[in-house]
Amino acid sequence: MSAVASSRLAGTQARDTGPREPQPGEPVLTVAGVGKTYVEPVLSDIDLTLISGEVLALTGENGAGKSTLSKIIGGLVSPTHGSMNYQGAPFAPVSRSDAEAQGVRMVMQELNLLPTLTIAENLFLNQLPRIKGLGWISRGKLREDARAAMARVGLDSLDPDTPVSALGIGHQQMVEIARNLIGDCRVLILDEPTAMLTGREVDLLFEQVERLKREGVAIIYISHRLEELARIANRIAVLRDGKLVSVGAIADYATDRLVTLMVGREIGEKIDLGERRIGAPVLRVDGLTRGTVVRDVSFEVRRGEIFGISGLIGAGRTELLRMIFGADPTDSGTVSLGEPPVPAKIKSPSDAVRHGIAMITEDRKGEGLLLTQSIGANLALGNFDAVSRYGVVDGEREAALSHRQIDAMHIRSSSWQQPVGELSGGNQQKVVIGRWLERDCEVLLFDEPTRGIDVGAKFDIYGLLGAQARSGKALVVVSSDLRELMLICDRIGVMSAGRMVETFGRDEWTQDSLLAAAFSGYAKREELLTRETS
């Protein structure tokens, strides 16, 4: 009997009534009727079974519920309803560490490493080897154990005493994976694990996945890369709008079928944004680049036009808007404004505002609002000249501005002095938009303008976007919701792996073509990486 098997047997005997460890091919974890509701349901009545020794691919559009489901299984989020059963016993982890102690581990997109510590210290942070009788850390034993763990994922060429901060992002990802492979692991969740890896590192990861399968580990593999899923998975589960729409053998799912399942039917909803006249270009972006995050992006937006930007998480959409707005530095490229557009020097958000650019951030609570302050105070931010007299805020002017925007934006509130934190998400978003509209900027950048708000508020926002376009503004809208972009945009540019890979006109796009374009850059990058490492 192996040492691992002996330790598991001893642990089972110590628990007396502990669950029986499943054999390969048997269910290890079942999810029954699991759902999660925040302001609105984000996950609804999920029924799923994980099989020992099998890879279950989990896929779907951005916002489909993949991360929420995996975080519930991994103990990071508690379900609103439903139950789970793990190794024959009820499973309701109260934290990530609780789930890990029971053998359920998760490698998240956001790295969970301490950059000031070494590779070895990060690997064994919660179980540092001690010198018997002294309590000191045994550095020799720590290095030995670390080398063994690193060798499993192809990091044996690195010094275990190297600070994690000195590693590239790909190596850091492999350290995170190695950390989660230490000790007893019965369920492993991998959330977009190859996003930052080279072709060789992907091959090493897949070798470990095959080893874990042979050892009976059940693996949930989350990825947008359909070619990876076909290579590594046994079964696939597709989520759409928080619901499980299909589960089956991966061999039964061609790419076209998967795309159709992910996006659903073509949207039948229509919205009348009013008669608009699309004029000459007033915003031109040429060759905008920052490392590999945004790579040589060029496009233009005309007066009165709503230009949408689509793409997967990590495609560079938000980073592109932040670069245009001067919030993030650029390596190269220009932003031009006016009729005709001429290059503008934008090194900071204040420069962007002076040039007539506004940006409505995706993080309205963290970056867009002062939640404890009143509606009036939040509307006044950035509009000091409009509410002040002789350098001092004038109450009457602040009240006038507040009433003007509350009426124009249809903000539901008890008064202009109500704290913004007491408003619904949709009304909070209207406050952010109202603040910028007061400045009458010519170019408006919207990053996920309807995220986390109800359907009624969404259509209010759409109406506001239409009104701005009718007034001759140039709008750029980033959204993870393809149907939303198709509803309101005149053109949609698709970003993939940092590049703007294709632009569609209203009569040219379909949901399938937009999603296929979003995947295309990653497929090409995989081909290049394979060539480089072959």
From TrEMBL:
It comes from Pararobbsia alpina. Its main location: membrane. It is a peripheral membrane protein. This is Galactose/methyl galactoside import ATP-binding protein MglA. Keywords: ATP-binding, Cell inner membrane, Cell membrane, Membrane, Nucleotide-binding, Repeat, Sugar transport, Translocase, Transport. Gene3D superfamilies: P-loop containing nucleotide triphosphate hydrolases (3.40.50.300). Coiled coil: none annotated. It is found in: Cell membrane. Residues 1-27 are annotated as: Disordered. Residues 26-266, 278-522 form the ABC transporter domain. InterPro entries: AAA+_ATPase, ABC_carbohydrate_import_ATPase, ABC_transporter-like_ATP-bd, ABC_transporter-like_CS, P-loop_NTPase. GO terms for molecular function: ATP binding; ATP hydrolysis activity. SUPFAM superfamilies: P-loop containing nucleoside triphosphate hydrolases (SSF52540). One of its GO terms (cellular component) is plasma membrane.
